[in-house]
Design a protein that fits this description.
Chain lengths: ~425, ~425
């Protein structure tokens, strides 16, 4: 029932927000940024309580780090809001403009989607980040964060709502679901009357559960089992550099590489170079039989569980392939369609790979780590879509809009 | 289990089809058209059996008409396939092309979605039509038609599959589910491992059931509760002409109007004109109290059930509103977001309506009947999307594609 009420309020707010001009939305975003900064003390206090509760519950250090807010991270949240204010307004973009032979003038324009619900986990900065992107794209947002960050989320949403009101927009443009039980997430997934799209941000488990259970349309994000294929015509040093970067620059993110496929002809030369780089970053290689034959004690034997696995850690699977085609087949089988890469100096092999591999981003001679809204020039992102419908790859402001046809006639009938 | 096998075959075929060039796809489409025409006798015989069974089961005349194939309709199916062959290939379109400051070259191209499942009802021509659009857009299709048309569908799919094979494409690019029970539809809705998108074509009941039950992403089509708002500044004759056309030119389709909203100031002038037009087309008006006061015995009183109702028949609801804003509010409440129209000579009122009403197509001074792939210049359509994600409005070939980024580097790391 609470969710029903939140949904209704979001839909009402969305209707007002859809008519708001760019200036009003930007003013609200800047006010929200100021409010977050000015409320830093309040936010830190709330976050301190979350941290204490999490420590008492035995949360591990990685998770504690994600949960923690600092003065610097709070400034980052505020700056994120300001960055979004500076981006172009995606609403009202003319996507197509044509006059039909009968004189009908069709103008296809970008419009807000309506109400977006975001289900996420422990990182409290996702709250401001999602609010900013949804607001700028004219969508009301319903935020349902994890229980670990609930006090931090309540504090930041309160600050942002007050700023919205001050800027002349409905405070219900941004709402937080304070019930953090499974029941509230489940209710959101079935709130079809009010929610136009649901975006899960977080673990593979959360995303899978949302896709399976939600009757509200979902934009599937995340989960990247990314491969680097080192072709026989690769530059070995470039291959080692790309693999080191793709694996170790930030192993916990979805665009990090999880598996290398090495052409048999180049393996004896390139594998030791790769091992040098990965060892320096304390990264374990789990190899198939032929990799083990080359690397010996520098690697450990892979098991069947290692293929198609997202480690999100300093571990990388490695496997020898006999041909480009075998690499493509392997990727077809194990890729999650996020980011894939071929390293080669052979343009024909590269083009075959780029065309045959079906993923949001397919790279020739560059690290998979570039799959990111900022790196793609979108300014900001709400996630990386790994699905085929609506949007694929980094989801920026444009991807948070729908469209409509405005049609100008002079009495035409059919 | 049968569905599992069909899904697997579709996915394999899709992989081959995704790499097929335009010429091969067009050759296959033309061969399919010829096969349909040359197999007309076989098709008519199968359809005759469907018709006999349907008559024996007491099917009504409208439904029998939808089910029936004639020599002319078979030619229409074949011509439909040829029309799709003549359309531009949506695959490989460059959607974006940019070089980032670090030298990475990003090319965003249209790619097939993969495997599309279509669930539909009694019209056997949907079979060829869906097969054509999916094939041209590089997608394997799984067709699940209604039991009434099963013999006709088996016959046409056999003809098309033989033609595919001859043209050098996998026959499993087009597959028919011959089990027409609810169980097979349900299994399709949960075939996430193989099916990328599900498109229901048919009754509101079918569409609603699919949206509610499917875990496979759905493109929601159909269901149009379309309104014509006659503003106080309308040209009364244009209003009457548009309403007559929108209601009576083909009442059974989703872009037909179901309700007129008349500004109180113009109602005494315009309503009798509208009644003249609708009476000539044997169309009943169901009016609110104020409409009844003007039209008297020329209308019948509406009940609460008449608001937001899709008659798909020679019946139209009518209601007086006090203002443009009231019309917008009414449409907000009852529209299914398909096609909406304002008739007015006042550009400011028109622009307010076009901006405030949230629907796939919003018309100023033109019939809602134009919402159609052909009329919008798409060449052909697989339905009209009334959802906000992926595509809204007529779904043509472009809307049956996804996208990917092909990224050209020189060893860049992040």
């Amino acid at each position: 029932m609470m969710l029903e009420q939140i949904g209704k309020q979001a839909k009402q707010a969305a209707r007002v927000l859809a008519g708001a001009d760019t200036e009003t939305k930007n003013r609200a975003l800047l006010a929200m940024a100021d409010a977050i900064e000015q409320g830093a003390e309040q936010l830190l206090a709330a976050n301190g309580e979350d941290m204490a509760a999490a420590r008492a519950a035995g949360m591990n250090d990685t998770m504690l780090d994600r949960l923690q807010l600092t003065a610097e991270r709070i400034r980052g949240m505020a700056d994120g809001l300001r960055d979004v204010a500076a981006l172009p307004d995606p609403v009202g973009r003319v996507l197509d403009d044509q006059v039909r032979p009968n004189g009908l003038h069709l103008v296809k324009v970008a419009v807000p989607i309506g109400v977006i619900a975001v289900i996420y986990e422990a990182r409290p900065n996702v709250t401001a980040d999602s609010a900013a992107l949804c607001l700028k794209s004219g969508n009301a947002v319903i935020l349902r964060g994890g229980k670990e960050a609930i006090r931090s989320n309540i504090a930041s949403v309160e600050l942002m709502r007050a700023a919205l009101k001050e800027a002349g927009l409905p405070e219900n443009c941004v709402q937080l679901v304070t019930d953090t039980t499974h029941a509230s997430a489940n209710a959101l997934m079935h709130l079809n009357a009010y929610v136009d799209v649901l975006i899960p941000r977080g673990s593979q488990r959360l995303i899978r559960a949302t896709v399976e259970q939600s009757t509200v349309p979902v934009i599937q994000t995340g989960s990247g089992v990314c491969h680097i294929y080192v072709d026989k015509a690769a530059d070995p040093d470039m291959a080692a550099s790309i693999i080191e970067n793709a694996k170790t620059s930030r192993p916990s993110v979805c665009n990090a590489a999880e598996c290398m496929l090495i052409h048999k002809d180049i393996a004896p030369v390139v594998l030791p170079k790769i091992a040098d780089r990965l060892e320096a970053k304390h990264t374990q290689i789990r190899g198939d039989g032929r990799v083990m034959a080359i690397l010996g004690s520098r690697a450990v034997p892979a098991t069947v569980d290692d293929w198609g696995r997202e480690y999100l850690d300093y571990v990388m699977a490695a496997r020898i392939v006999d041909s480009l085609e075998e690499a493509i087949d392997y990727v077809y089988r194990y890729s999650t369609g996020h980011s894939e890469c071929i390293v080669t100096e052979d343009p024909a092999a590269a083009e075959q790979y780029l065309n045959s591999v079906d993923a949001a981003a397919v790279y020739w001679n560059a690290s998979t780590r570039f799959t990111d809204g900022g790196e793609f020039g979108l300014g900001a992102e709400i996630g990386i879509s790994t699905q085929k419908l609506h949007a694929r790859g980094p989801l920026g402001l444009n991807e948070l809009t729908s469209m409509k046809y405005k049609i100008y006639g002079k009495g035409q009938i059919r």
